[in-house]
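F.,

This is the one I mentioned.
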């Protein structure tokens, strides 16, 4: 059976003394660059020389079903992103070697994805992407004992109920752009490194204390008023942009923190930052700051975003960022009263000798 009327070519090459058949679509290039996906003549990609780790990429074919598509039984990865699918082809349930499955940007509802919860042949899946569909609950993924990446972002999920059944092997969890109101059923995810819960309806940071391996926490666009990291100290990236914070207290124990994003809140004072000796990126733009405080001892700052505040004078900037004077390469101060000062940009470049960017102006 031909795949969507696509003519396939085969190339025999020698790998470690053995003949391997490479399968590729006419046109040669197997990459998934944006320019290729926009071409009028779309291409199907099958990668993997010996079939043991092959990938079938059917991104953006606008398929309503897979009836006319041949599904090789030895697939390692199946990407069905950006189609019109609402139900799962039963042949997928027989792919015992499948490790990565993407159903992103389709029309799946809860009933549509239900079969994967009982297809034991898929129990070896490590990556399951259900992003941008029509789910209203966390599907039961308890059969996937080796799951590493689980993405249910951009759905209509109001609760994290069901996460307790997700394997403790999980390292990346994405539940952004849903309607979640409470951080719960996370306690067993001891291996989790990335947690994305942005654009939900969260008001309280809670139940994080057992996530001792967490590296990145993304909670932007919620309704959080107070920082509570539940004693975690190993996080490297935190985003709390577009919340309802009025204080920066709560980060002082995160000594490994490298990037902190707090723009679009109601913060009036910079505090609790002096212990963050590894901080490289600090974004406190669009707040209510009138001065720059508590970062003079930091020595690794490279990017500092202070734009859209109420900072009056440039005179204290140099001393306020003294520890990173040689390190700083980017600073944003536009839309502050101080940005109206004569020779504003020149003054900043004199203060910070290695500056490469002031606001949107980049210096070569």
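My design for it:
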């Amino acid at each position: 059976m031909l795949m969507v009327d696509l003519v396939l070519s085969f190339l025999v090459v020698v790998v470690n003394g053995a003949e391997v058949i490479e399968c590729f679509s006419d046109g040669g290039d197997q990459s998934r660059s944006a320019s290729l996906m926009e071409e009028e003549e779309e291409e199907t990609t099958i990668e993997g020389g010996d079939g043991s780790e092959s990938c079938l990429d059917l991104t953006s074919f606008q398929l309503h079903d897979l009836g006319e598509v041949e599904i090789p039984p030895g697939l390692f990865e199946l990407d069905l992103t950006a189609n019109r699918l609402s139900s799962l082809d039963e042949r997928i349930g027989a792919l015992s070697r499948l490790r990565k499955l993407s159903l992103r940007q389709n029309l799946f509802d809860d009933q549509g994805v239900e079969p994967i919860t009982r297809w034991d042949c898929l129990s070896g899946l490590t990556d399951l992407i259900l992003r941008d569909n029509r789910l209203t609950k966390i599907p039961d993924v308890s059969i996937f004992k080796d799951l590493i990446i689980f993405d249910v972002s951009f759905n209509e999920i109001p609760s994290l109920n069901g996460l307790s059944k997700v394997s403790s092997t999980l390292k990346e969890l994405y539940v952004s752009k849903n309607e979640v109101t409470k951080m719960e059923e996370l306690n067993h995810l001891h291996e989790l490194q990335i947690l994305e819960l942005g654009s939900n309806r969260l008001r309280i940071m809670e139940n994080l204390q057992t996530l001792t391996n967490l590296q990145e926490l993304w909670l932007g666009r919620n309704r959080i008023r107070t920082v509570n990291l539940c004693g975690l100290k190993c996080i490297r990236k935190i985003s709390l942009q577009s919340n309802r914070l009025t204080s920066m207290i709560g980060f002082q124990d995160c000594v490994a923190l490298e990037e902190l994003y707090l723009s679009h809140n109601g913060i009036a004072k910079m505090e609790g930052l002096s212990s963050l000796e590894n901080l490289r990126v600090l974004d406190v733009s669009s707040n209510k700051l009138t001065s720059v405080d508590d970062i003079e001892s930091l020595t690794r700052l490279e990017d500092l975003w202070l734009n859209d505040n109420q900072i009056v004078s440039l005179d204290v900037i140099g001393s306020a960022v003294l520890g990173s004077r040689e390190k700083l390469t980017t600073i944003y101060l536009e839309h502050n009263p101080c940005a109206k000062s004569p020779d504003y940009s020149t003054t900043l470049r004199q203060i910070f000798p290695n500056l490469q960017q002031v606001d949107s102006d980049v210096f070569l």
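The longest helix spans residues 344-351.

Talk soon.
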